[in-house]
From TrEMBL:
Its cofactor is pyridoxal 5'-phosphate. It is an enzyme of class 4 (lyase). It comes from Alkalihalophilus lindianensis. PROSITE patterns: TRP_SYNTHASE_BETA. Its EC number is 4.2.1.20. The modification N6-(pyridoxal phosphate)lysine is found at K94. The gene is trpB. CDD domains: Trp-synth_B (cd06446). Keywords: Amino-acid biosynthesis, Aromatic amino acid biosynthesis, Lyase, Pyridoxal phosphate, Tryptophan biosynthesis. This is Tryptophan synthase beta chain. InterPro entries: Trp_synth_b_CS (IPR006653), Trp_synth_beta (IPR006654), Trp_synth_beta/beta-like (IPR023026), TrpB-like_PALP (IPR001926), TrpB-like_PALP_sf (IPR036052).
Length: 402
């Protein structure tokens, strides 16, 4: 690693003006304990080795780099390559991070994991690794989300986790997060709080990035080996931003264009989208200063996207910083554009991607057309679409009827 990539975040957990630790006094000692343990663990070769062992033996890494031959030829512009995080155990990149944090929890002597989940994907990854490591696991989930995502609730329970309904506010992710934090404050002695994306107070955004950069580290080496050069562009979808930063981070110092793709939902000119960076304003959410969706009075507004994993009102502070410096470009892709891309990847390449991932694919197909056959695009295929078939069935059936 070179100088610039190690500068951020600074000692106060800031990425430029973004990030930080906006937490109540009661959480400070737990956060400081975590910060200290994390620094020690990251400097301990044995810890990093154990982390990589679990990635290999349990998660199934390294994942493949796949040339999307049929679509690339059909488009006739840049060649598209897919980093296959859909092949990770449980079907998405989220387990990379859950393994790292659960390993740290064990090292810190914690016996219990607490987490929150929106659509349930992070909850499933957390329950999975808790089962494997023999840790007890409590997952807070909005009561409304539990109804919408009954299958994931059942999966978590099957894995031995306890799913606790959050009944406050809008009964969704925001409320589940508040209740998970409240639980952690009073149980920090034996409990580790496992966050699912590059959000929250320092050191979470840095920790999650460092456990997800395995995506970019592998992809960069695989691409170099295969093509003898780096890709022209790297593209990933952005919810909280963990698969994107994990993919981008090892390319930050390279002469490679980086594009993050947010959810434009039903359109950025409606109020039904989740385009936090491209259409949000600065504010504090879940312990960190970043861009977020808020109304005139500064109240956080409900985001919308057809993909539950992109449906978050904030975004990781490092993305806010990379947007402000212009190093990464952020665009938004609508529900419909994502669904079209999902269908194309399924029929042409035999891979059904997650709807989240399809946002990155839509942008990649558009860029491929604008570039030349000498150019190459690397896309992070963050997850598989099996979890989405219900949504897809409903949508594609309605399409046929209209
Ligand atoms: C959760 C999820 C995302 C969004 O989370 P990030 O932290 O932005 O990566 C994207 N893709 C898939 C498949 C997911 O499960």
């Amino acid at each position: 690693m070179n100088a610039t990539t190690t500068v951020y975040p600074d000692k106060r957990g800031r990425f430029g003006e973004f990030g930080g630790k906006y937490v109540p006094e009661t959480l400070m000692s737990a956060i400081e304990e975590l910060e200290e343990s994390l620094d020690q663990a990251m400097d301990d070769p044995e810890f990093m080795e154990a982390y990589k062992d679990h990635l290999r033996e349990f998660a199934g890494r390294p994942t493949a780099l796949t040339y999307a031959k049929n679509i690339s030829e059909k488009i006739g512009g840049a060649s598209i390559y897919l980093k296959r995080e859909d092949l990770v155990h449980t079907g998405a990149h989220k387990l990379n991070n859950a393994i790292g944090q659960a390993l740290l929890a064990k090292r810190m002597g914690k016996t219990k994991i607490v987490a929150e989940t929106g659509a349930g994907q992070h909850g499933v990854a957390t329950a999975t690794i808790a089962a494997r490591f023999g840790l007890s696991c409590k997952v807070f989930m909005g009561a409304e989300d539990m109804e919408r995502q009954a299958l994931n609730v059942f999966r978590m329970e099957l894995l031995g986790a306890e799913v606790v309904p959050a009944n406050s506010g809008s009964k969704t992710l925001k409320d589940a997060t508040n209740e998970a934090i409240r639980y952690w404050v009073t149980h920090a002695e034996d409990t580790f709080y496992l966050i699912g994306s590059v959000v929250g107070p320092h050191p979470y955004p840095k920790m999650v990035r460092d456990f997800q950069r395995i995506i970019g580290d592998e992809a960069r080496a695989q691409f170099l080996k295969r093509e003898n050069r780096l890709p022209t562009e790297v593209i990933a979808c952005v919810g909280g931003g963990s698969n994107a930063i994990g993919t981008f981070y090892p390319f930050i110092e390279d002469d490679v264009k980086l594009i993050g793709v947010e959810a434009a939902g039903k359109g950025i000119d409606t109020d039904q989208h989740a385009a936090t960076i491209t259409h949000g304003r600065k504010g504090v959410i879940h312990g960190s200063l970043t861009y977020l969706l808020q109304d005139e009075a500064g109240q956080i507004t409900e985001p919308y996207s057809i993909s539950a994993g992109l449906d978050y009102p904030g975004v990781g502070p490092e993305h806010a910083y990379l947007a402000s410096t212009g190093r990464v470009r952020y665009d938004a892709v609508s529900d419909q554009e994502a669904l079209d891309a999902l269908k194309l990847l399924s029929t042409e390449e035999g891979i059904i991607p997650a709807i989240e991932t399809a946002h990155a694919l839509a942008k990649a197909f558009e860029r491929a057309e604008e570039l030349t056959p000498e150019d190459t695009i690397l896309v992070c295929l963050s997850g598989r679409g099996d979890k989405d078939v219900h949504t897809l069935m409903k949508h594609f059936k309605e399409d046929k009827q209209s």
